[in-house]
Specification:
The protein has two domains: 123 residues, Roll (Archaeosine Trna-guanine Transglycosylase, Chain: A, domain 4); 80 residues, no CATH class. A hairpin with a 7-residue loop joins strand 5 and strand 6. It has a five-stranded mixed beta barrel. With 231 residues, the chain is α+β, with helices and mostly antiparallel strands. The protein is built from six helices and six strands.
């Protein structure tokens, strides 16, 4: 995988988001998600994306979506903009795809149904840290989150070494929070609340509280470490 081909700049986002709504997955920036795309409307979405800007927005269906799944059920207002990292077309015409989360986006207005898939006008939502937080406070929060993450992991020494090596010094607090939020065994409503938080410090505090409540007996189901963006 060519890192240059995955580079993303907010200036490259037109404000047009192709929506791939899901009921049971909350995607975050800085992680990768494998998907199998088989529904005709989403194959159409994917084929347009690969011929254009390589971008797809993984959105979250709001409660009550079951009664109108084939139509246009309500969506949560925050979604994750993803870049197509790689894909493979199957003999059946479906696609196996690897997506890289690049940014939070706020859905502003859904566009008229002129295509097989849904789309919306959206704006990028960047992470921010309150100005009054000193650098040492941010480092302290990062260490707290790393320790809480370790306690939630299976007690395998190599996993701890990977956390220290890959997360300890190479990424920002916001990136770390997103990776932990995606990887940790948390309920969907908690993950959704974390996706909606652009304030990094608030996100970390909510995540620390959620990890403490989850208990040390729970283990993560996703493989660690997930791949993440260095952008």
């Amino acid at each position: 995988m060519n890192e240059d081909s995955l580079a993303f700049s907010p200036d490259n986002f037109s404000g047009f988001a192709r929506l791939f709504p899901l009921p049971n997955l909350v995607m975050f920036p800085h992680v990768m998600q494998a998907m199998h795309i088989f529904e005709p409307r989403y194959r159409s979405l994917f084929e347009e994306a690969i011929s254009d800007d390589q971008l797809i927005a993984l959105s979250v269906l709001a409660q009550g979506w079951e009664v109108d799944y084939e139509g246009r059920p309500a969506l949560e207002p925050m979604a994750c903009l993803c870049r197509i990292a790689t894909y493979q077309r199957t003999p059946e015409g479906t696609y196996n795809v690897l997506l890289l989360g690049v940014r939070r986006i706020q859905l502003q207005e859904e566009l008229p149904p002129t295509k097989p898939f849904r789309s919306a006008e959206a704006k990028i939502v960047e992470d921010h840290v309150p100005l009054h937080f000193a650098a040492e406070e941010i480092v302290g929060l990062q260490q707290q989150l790393l320790m809480a993450f370790k306690r939630s992991m299976p007690k395998i020494p190599t996993s701890y070494e990977q956390i220290d090596e890959l997360l300890g010094s190479q990424i920002t607090l916001g990136m770390l929070a997103d990776i932990v939020a995606y990887t940790a065994e948390l309920d969907s409503s908690t993950k959704l609340s974390l996706l909606k938080m652009s304030n990094v410090v608030d996100r970390v505090h909510v995540l620390l509280n959620a990890l403490s409540k989850s208990g040390q007996s729970k283990v993560t189901r996703r493989t660690f470490p997930p791949a993440f963006s260095t952008n």
